[in-house]
Amino acid sequence: MRIPSRIIGGAVIATLLTQLTACGTLFYPDRRGQIDGKVDPVIVALDAIGILFYVIPGLLALGVDFATGAIYYPDGTTAQVSPEKLRPAVEADGKVNRVKLQAILESELGQRLPLNDPRLIEHRGSVEQLAAYGLHPVI
């Protein structure tokens, strides 16, 4: 009778240890280190299931996910291209050639961006920004 109790005890210990490591930390280790953001409802639901079955380990799992930041969705990715590489896309009159800009961004970022999409929102720069890049505003 001693062997079945050891098996059951080992299973309980393994279950408790998996709950202590937290779902977000296990499933998305790349998310660790985030400070804030949108909370991932799947991770919250998995931690809530842990709370349902084992109150203390479930609460610890939820706390670990919040403390490590693994409970948050990842931030949006950003990319930067130096102004010197973007300069060929700007024509002499200060207007941007979208075809050249799309080719430059595709070669630098490795992604094809839909610059001719009608939903694209264009922001105009200030005179100071243009002067910083050696450009003159179109009047």
From TrEMBL:
<keyword id="KW-0808">Transferase</keyword>
<feature type="transmembrane region" description="Helical">
    <location>
        <begin position="7"/>
        <end position="28"/>
    </location>
</feature>
<protein>
    <submittedName>
        <fullName>Polyribonucleotide nucleotidyltransferase</fullName>
    </submittedName>
</protein>
<keyword id="KW-1133">Transmembrane helix</keyword>
<keyword id="KW-0812">Transmembrane</keyword>
<dbReference type="GO" id="GO:0016740">
    <property type="term" value="F:transferase activity"/>
</dbReference>
<keyword id="KW-0472">Membrane</keyword>
<feature type="transmembrane region" description="Helical">
    <location>
        <begin position="48"/>
        <end position="73"/>
    </location>
</feature>
